[in-house]
Amino acid sequence: MIIRQIYEIVRERLNLFPAVALLGPRQVGKTTLAEIVAKEYSSVYLDLEKFEDVEKMSDPGYFLNIHRHKLVILDEIQCIPNLFPLLRGIIDKGRKQGLRNSRFLLLGSASGELLRQSGETLAGRIAYVEMSPLHLLEVGGQSVETLWIRGGFPDSFLAKSERKSIIWRDNFILTYLERDLPRLGARVPVATLPIFNIFAVSDLGQNPIWSISGP
Ligand SMILES: Nc1ncnc2c1ncn2[C@@H]1O[C@H](COP(=O)(O)OP(=O)(O)O)[C@@H](O)[C@H]1O
Ligand SMILES: [Mg+2]
């Protein structure tokens, strides 16, 4: 496990704000970091992509009473953007009772819409921390070449072989173009996608990827 430098920043922000949003692309390591944070606090973890976890939250007393003194970690927050007013109510009520920090750790992608909604509703109550892929200080100078070639997404960087790393990146880029970019609000015409795909269709290193031109 590579120790992420951002961990200390997340802890510091949690000690200062009732809510902290840890934002970053899929597969960058948000959930893994949250699991480490969860061990340090008395906490409860909910994955909002899971129906049973969303259902738990429909009970209004869930946060107010049961988990009043716990750090509540909400993963994939972009699945339920209209959650922010509820969080605001809980945070404000808690403030009156002296609960001023470490109440919510929100994980999700940094889409413009999510930032707008959370920023408007939770102004003054939320700190944002952006998580990037692994960087040189985290992997060490001896790995500079690997980092340069494979990039800093942990599963690509740590892949057992060059081929596995390439396959991981090909899949990641395709999913990013087809699913994540549209969700982030980017309107990429279907006809434009092949231009980006020059990075994805790498032919597993057999041909130089930049020899393929766009449409
Ligand atoms: N610090 C780390 N060291 C080693 N592997 C990591 C680290 N952080 C994440 N990973 C690996 O990267 C992959 C994606 O991590 P995950 O936390 O699920 O990302 P996210 O929640 O941002 O989508 C997982 O296979 C995980 O084991
Ligand atoms: Mg995750």
Which terms summarize this structure?
215 residues, binds adenosine-5'-diphosphate, five-stranded parallel β-sheet, alpha/beta, disordered C terminus, binds magnesium ion
What does this structure look like?
The protein is an alpha/beta fold. The chain is built from eleven helices and five strands, in the order H-E-H-E-H-H-E-H-E-H-E-H-H-H-H-H. It has helices spanning 6-16, 30-40, 51-56, 61-66, 84-96, 112-121, 136-139, 144-150, 154-157, 162-183, 193-200; strands at residues 19-23, 43-47, 71-75, 104-108, 126-130. Strand 3, helix 5 (84-96) and strand 4 form a beta-alpha-beta unit. The protein is globular and about 55 Å long. Residues 201-215 have low confidence and may be disordered. The chain binds adenosine-5'-diphosphate and magnesium ion.
